[in-house]
Amino acid sequence: MIEGIDRLNEVEWEVKPGFVPEMRVPGKFFLSDSLAETLEEGAIKQLANVATLPGILKYSYGMPDIHWGYGFPIGGVAAFEMETGIISPGGVGFDINCGVRLLTTPLKKSDLGKPKRLINELFHTVPTGVGTRSEKKLSADELEDMMCEGAKWAVNMGYGTPEDLNRCEEKGFMEAADTDFVSKKARLRGMPQCGTLGSGNHFLEIQEVSEIMDPEVADKFGVSKDQICVMIHCGSRGLGHQVCTDHLKDLESATKKYHINIPDAQLACAPIKSDEGKAYFGAMAASANYAWANRQMITHMVREIFEKVYKIDYSDMKLVYDVTHNVAKYETHVVNGQKTEVCVHRKGATRAFGPGCHDIPHELSDFGQPVIIPGSMGTSSYLLKGTQTAMEKTFGSTCHGSGRIFSRSKAKKSAQGAEIKDELEKKGIFVKATSNKVIAEESPEAYKPSSEVVSVVHKAGISLEVARLEPIGVIKG
């Protein structure tokens, strides 16, 4: 292990103050021995850099899918005191509210027939790829409503059911959205992209529930063995990216204005309650709402395809839950024995609230929040539940996925997309993508094993296994 790091137990490690100068708190990350072999020293340095930021509370955290990112590591979590703390786009990322949702169906694998037909239908219906445009012509007023109301706007427009909103983190929108701080350029990027999947690691995947680890909770979540489910992973598209780009410039100036010493320019930030901090938070929340509405619109398309192909009822495809991976939010947590409002940054991390917490659907309150962990095209995805341990250890947070081991450019050099596609098809996984280059970039070998990542958070108790899902077919941008 890297010098300056102490092992606390089987899966918890601590980065001692002094790893980089002026750390205000230690760093803590969760990792097994095998995942430690993939650990990037640069990601740990980023974790330590975050620990130098004003107002940080308890620890700078790294989840087992930690890897190098912009400013904060991906798989990073940090909470900041409201009066003295900061807010930073580097702690949220460019794809604001990149997130994932899981839909159930009443179908089993034998009902699907040839999955290729279904995957082709989905690929030709859900706009997919870099800069893809939606068939819906969104007006300026509709975009405004979309940014203010999130998934609620989409449901009111006919893209889903009222019950869907109850199964979204924050019920699918942040009240703090302030569209005055969303630029014209961001709006122009967002208007043609509503209801589109995008590219990169975003996907839509048909899955089969292969194992139930916690039968009682799986039943409450609406999931059963051999059931066919659909997982949707995407974010705020060009609008969110532009909001991040725009506000980074303002926050770089604010960092100097407020005399905040940062060890890395990518940690540009401002006090949470400063004008610049409030402007970023309002625009970020508007982008998060756009992303929730975007996933809701794609959900509608998926339901219509299943209705057409399998003659099942639209309402028979229930939403298990929708979680965000990239966001900053004001939440109440216990700090030094007192309930305290804090600003939690989760970047490549998932909220994992335990039983009895607010913002959990009433019917699930005794069990904890559903946590959805996607795999990497050819590997298992997981459904977990949030825990009280997460509330105490990580500000109610856990991992978000597998976590990259190497870059997209290296992945493209390591394997050919056509070969990967053939290998996956031999395993019964049909992949449809805009190009073989995309498949190569997202090769399963470019990611950590999802089973090992999930095993670590389960052992740490910051979320617990409920069910495992295996891929049958995937569409990618």
UniProtKB/TrEMBL annotation:
Residues the entry annotates as binding Mn(2+) 1: 95, 202
Keyword Membrane among record annotations: no
Keyword annotations of the record: GTP-binding, Ligase, Manganese, Metal-binding, Nucleotide-binding
Gene Ontology molecular function terms on file: GTP binding; metal ion binding; RNA ligase (ATP) activity; RNA ligase (GTP) activity
Top enzyme class: ligase
InterPro entries: RtcB, RtcB-like_sf
Entry annotated with the keyword Zinc: no
Cofactor(s) for this UniProt protein: Mn(2+)
Cofactor info, note text: Binds 2 manganese ions per subunit.
One GO process term, biological-process aspect: tRNA splicing, via endonucleolytic cleavage and ligation
Active site (UniProt): 400
Domain of life: Archaea
EC id: 6.5.1.-
Record-listed GMP binding positions: 201-205, 325-326, 374-377, 381, 400-403, 476
Reaction(s) this enzyme catalyzes, per UniProt: a 3'-end 3'-phospho-ribonucleotide-RNA + a 5'-end dephospho-ribonucleoside-RNA + GTP = a ribonucleotidyl-ribonucleotide-RNA + GMP + diphosphate; a 3'-end 2',3'-cyclophospho-ribonucleotide-RNA + a 5'-end dephospho-ribonucleoside-RNA + GTP + H2O = a ribonucleotidyl-ribonucleotide-RNA + GMP + diphosphate + H(+)
Cross-referenced Gene3D superfamilies: tRNA-splicing ligase RtcB
Protein family per UniProt: Belongs to the RtcB family.
Functional description taken from the UniProt entry: Essential for tRNA splicing and maturation. Acts by directly joining spliced tRNA halves to mature-sized tRNAs. Joins RNA with 2',3'-cyclic-phosphate or 3'-phosphate ends to RNA with 5'-hydroxy ends.
Protein name: tRNA-splicing ligase RtcB
